[in-house]
Automatic annotation (TrEMBL):
Its main location: cytoplasm. This is Uncharacterized protein. Keywords: Cytoplasm, Repeat, tRNA processing, WD repeat. GO terms for biological process: tRNA methylation. SUPFAM superfamilies: WD40 repeat-like (SSF50978). It comes from Meloidogyne enterolobii (Root-knot nematode worm). PANTHER family: WD REPEAT PROTEIN, WD REPEAT-CONTAINING PROTEIN 6. It is found in: Cytoplasm. It comes from the Eukaryota. The lineage of its organism: Eukaryota, Metazoa, Ecdysozoa, Nematoda, Chromadorea.
Amino acid sequence: MFDETTNSIICRKYLVGGGKRLWQLWKGTFLENDELCLFYAQKGSFYCDILKPLFLNFVKQIPHSENITALDFLIKDEKNFFILSGSLDRKIVCSNFNGNQEFKINSSVQMHRSSVETICILQENSNFLVLSGGGRSELFCWELIFEEQNAPQFNLLFSTELKNENNIDDIRVLCVRWIFGRRKFAVVLCSDATIRILQLNYLTKSIVESSRFQLCSMAMFSSINLAGLIEGTTTSSSQLLFSTTTSGYLYIFKLLILSNGTTKIDLIHEPYFVEKCGLSAISTEISPFNNHQHFILIGSESGSISILTFDSLLGNVENNIFVNLHASTITALKIWKSSIQDSTLLIASVALDCRLCIGNYIPDKNEFIPQIQICLSISDPAALIVLPNRTKKELNEEEADEKGFSCIVSGSGIECINI
């Protein structure tokens, strides 16, 4: 059910059995508030079901007119999350998502000439910087300014158009991330099979490419994920970058910023073959037992997930788990530590089969345990973020997992699922 007055999906799913039937919804005077009556005919019988609020899943207001391709979030205070979304309609929207699961659109901006493919937020004290990229080689840098009553406004700082090797701006910016924890550096994944480090100059309002890595094959990079900063020496600081390709390989890079301000992209491990199909999504988490060990979660076009480990000291990669989890391409996934079980990692994934899958990975036993599969009410899921169902003042860490977490999935709309 779709409410045109509020642009909201009201009912996710209500099962009445198979077979063709005639049906009609009715709002009767004898019904209580928020109740609806569903009449339907089936196999020679006539049925009347009252849909109570228990059966109604109010999916959040749709902030875009077309598919939502990018999500990120920021924490303004203990009670308010803000979600930034980008879409094929070229808009970026900032929405408030508070502790009561209320979702309110605050502001939007439309400066992109093509679809918005990626959004990334950097928080410096009380300041929020946003990078957005998409089609037509466009990359924008914004400042998100919060006015009275938590009303955010977008302030455009500067923008650029990235060029390919032929100096033509006909590429797509597929993913952008801030690196080194600084506002001056970012890494971008482009559709011309390149990964580039960019330097941002806020005085001259310019974005300059400082280094790049390009695939030599016909394949292209499909996703990237950053690990935490590596403790730097007096001459440099560095950060690990993991990337997947459409040919089924995992690439591991070290991003370096030297003392003279120059940057480098070093391939520190030979390309590691994961699966004989395109890899589509990646997420990483540091081991709860060893700060040098990274768990790498990879999703593929076959609908399977792989869990690998990379030891940054030894420099070796091991393939631990391979699971057929979805029926089609995995578009987004997340791996993170459980707050009450130190030896367990939680995993969430969404795919084009319109399902959200939740599972546990136990490193000690090298075991993956599927927990929940949920049918989404939106189509073409493209992005996923995970938020705790609590505020910092409401719950301690031991109570956090009891109350669970929220998976926010975007596609043809935005859906919030409380786990």
